[in-house]
Each structure stands twice: as C-alpha cells, then as structure tokens.
C-alpha cells in the first residue's frame, strides 16, 4: 500500500486521542477497556481530545477519569496514525513514571498492573507489540497502521524518531 500518511500529516484529517504508559519499577499499568473503541482489550489509559485541549492535557485528564490517579511527568514517546473500518485517529503516546493515588476501577476501565518484561500482547491491539516495547524501554517511535476486519493490513513503525506537538520542531530529534 502506498500513499498512507504518517501521524504528522494525518492529524490534519483525523480526530486525535491519547494513550499513557505508566512505568512503576518493573511493572506497567494497563486497563481492561469496559466500553467504546477497543472494548475488552488491554490498553494504556487514554481517550479522545476535547476541544481546545493539548494532547498532554488530554492524557492527564483521561488517566484521572479512567483510573483515578494523577500522572506527574507525562513524556511524549511518539504517535501513530490509525485507520480502521469504524474509527480512525492520530493517537499521541506518553510515557510516565511518577504518579499520585491508587489506580481504581471506573465505568470505562479496570486497572491492571503487568510486568514490563511480560506484557500480555495477545490481549491487546495487534499493532501494540510493534511499538510498546520501545516506549517501555524509554525510546520514541512514529507509526502508521491500517486495519480491516480487526486485522492489521498495513503496519509501518519508525523507531528512534518522535512526532512533535503542533509548532514544536525541537521534539524531532532521534534517540
Ligand atoms: N491501535 C490502537 N492501539 C492501542 N490503542 C488504541 C488504538 N487505537 C485507538 O484508538 N486506541 C486508543 C486511543 C484512545 O486511548 C482509545 C480511544 O478513545 P476512547 O477511549 O474511545 O475515548 P474516550 O474519550 O475515553 O471515550 P468516550 O468518552 O468517547 O467513550 O483507544
């Protein structure tokens, strides 16, 4: 497949959402999604941007709403553009290591701590295994994915690059 835009171009066309991957020592926080996009999957907490919100503001709000904790240091780890039959988005991915509170279930999410070195990828979006190890390891990435009938049909991941926030060209350096 050719002509599939990456996340920087796609965010002019698609709704935007966020994910937070919180690392606490040798464990990382996932949620069992109780409703909506990806229901039943294990995913990082996150959700759709609201009007006027930056991705960083969104990820802090969504983590608080979904699992009742405050992440103190969300660091931009990358982004992916994603097309599926019923929902497409640019998803901004953050890594965090500091938080306050105890993860608590909500109507949308059941929190689950899993070992960093034994993430249950078979219960996650199929493409998460292509980029999440990089994020948990402190790296950065940019991805483009096309799904059909819940199966990935196009997968492109570039590691060691980052996708800047709008107007922030300093965030493009390789790591
Ligand atoms: N491919 C893939 N892998 C991992 N995570 C995701 C994807 N595609 C996705 O859309 N997502 C994530 C990104 C977001 O965190 C959620 C989708 O947002 P959602 O939870 O539906 O948004 P909310 O605003 O919290 O929900 P509602 O209030 O609209 O119900 O999936």
Automatic annotation (TrEMBL):
Keyword line: Cytoplasm, Hydrolase, Magnesium, Metal-binding, RNA-binding
Entry-linked PROSITE patterns: NUDIX (PS51462), NUDIX_BOX (PS00893)
EC number annotated for this UniProt entry: 3.6.1.56
Cofactor needs: Mg(2+)
UniProt catalytic activity: O(6)-methyl-dGTP + H2O = O(6)-methyl-dGMP + diphosphate + H(+); N(6)-methyl-dATP + H2O = N(6)-methyl-dAMP + diphosphate + H(+); 2-oxo-ATP + H2O = 2-oxo-AMP + diphosphate + H(+); 2-oxo-dATP + H2O = 2-oxo-dAMP + diphosphate + H(+)
Pfam families: NUDIX
Residues of the Nudix hydrolase domain: 13-137
Subcellular location: Cytoplasm
NAD as UniProt keyword: no
InterPro entries membership: 8ODP, Nudix_hydrolase, NUDIX_hydrolase-like_dom_sf, NUDIX_hydrolase_CS, NUDIX_hydrolase_dom
Key word Hydrolase present: yes
GO molecular function, one term: RNA binding
Principal localisation: cytoplasm
GO CC, alphabetical: cytoplasm
PANTHER family, sorted: 7,8-DIHYDRO-8-OXOGUANINE TRIPHOSPHATASE (PTHR43758), OXIDIZED PURINE NUCLEOSIDE TRIPHOSPHATE HYDROLASE (PTHR43758:SF2)
Subunit details: Monomer.
Chain's role: Oxidized purine nucleoside triphosphate hydrolase which is a prominent sanitizer of the oxidized nucleotide pool. Catalyzes the hydrolysis of 2-oxo-dATP (2-hydroxy-dATP) into 2-oxo-dAMP. Also has a significant hydrolase activity toward 2-oxo-ATP, 8-oxo-dGTP and 8-oxo-dATP. Through the hydrolysis of oxidized purine nucleoside triphosphates, prevents their incorporation into DNA and the subsequent transversions A:T to C:G and G:C to T:A. Also catalyzes the hydrolysis of methylated purine nucleoside triphosphate preventing their integration into DNA.
Family membership noted in the UniProt record: Belongs to the Nudix hydrolase family.
Protein name: Oxidized purine nucleoside triphosphate hydrolase
Organism: Halobaculum marinum
């Amino acid at each position: 497949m050719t002509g599939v835009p990456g996340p920087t171009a796609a965010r002019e066309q698609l709704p935007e959402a966020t994910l937070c991957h919180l690392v606490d020592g040798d464990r990382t926080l996932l949620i069992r999604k109780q409703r909506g996009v990806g229901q039943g999957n294990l995913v990082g907490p996150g959700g759709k941007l609201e009007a006027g919100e930056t991705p960083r503001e969104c990820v802090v709000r969504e983590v608080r709403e979904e699992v009742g904790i405050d992440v103190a240091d969300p660091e931009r780890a990358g982004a992916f553009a994603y097309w599926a039959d019923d929902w497409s988005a640019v998803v901004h991915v953050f890594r965090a290591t500091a938080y306050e509170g105890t993860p608590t279930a909500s109507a949308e999410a059941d929190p689950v701590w899993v070992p960093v070195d034994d993430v249950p990828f078979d219960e996650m979006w199929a493409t998460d295994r292509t980029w999440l190890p990089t994020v948990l390891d402190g790296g950065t990435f940019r991805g483009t994915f096309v799904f059909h009938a819940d199966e990935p049909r196009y997968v492109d991941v570039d590691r060691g690059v980052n996708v800047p926030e709008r107007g922030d060209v300093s965030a493009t350096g390789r790591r």
